[in-house]
């Protein structure tokens, strides 16, 4: 058996052939890697923008927020073109903004408070309707 024909040498030449192929490391990323990085960056930016908008409408995080601003902001979906806030880690007063977990907890708390307020208003509406019905029936009995 000739040395060059041994199975070990065949493996060695295959390994050396692989080493001689162009290196596809950080210096020359593949188009798929580039597209993935761009896509992931867009996703992260969209999340950052969404959390910034969410912080802007939560009263605990923003003293200017109110239920009317919640409706106004929820009507327009977040887009990367609207990202004017380069420094999303700071609040308007210069304090540090809550992290994402805190933002979600504040949002849940705010939604619960809005639901309680809404339920209270529904109860008040029902009470006023009953009162109006009583007044109408009393007026009709008097012939008014």
UniProtKB/TrEMBL annotation:
Residues 31-114 form the BHLH domain. The keyword Oxidoreductase does not apply. InterPro entries: bHLH_dom (IPR011598), HLH_DNA-bd_sf (IPR036638). The lineage of its organism: Eukaryota, Fungi, Fungi incertae sedis, Chytridiomycota, Chytridiomycota incertae sedis. SMART domains: HLH. SUPFAM superfamilies: HLH, helix-loop-helix DNA-binding domain (SSF47459). Residues 1-13 have a biased composition (Polar residues). This is BHLH domain-containing protein. Keywords: Coiled coil. Residues 1-46, 62-102 are annotated as: Disordered. It comes from Rhizoclosmatium globosum. Residues 111-138 form a coiled coil.
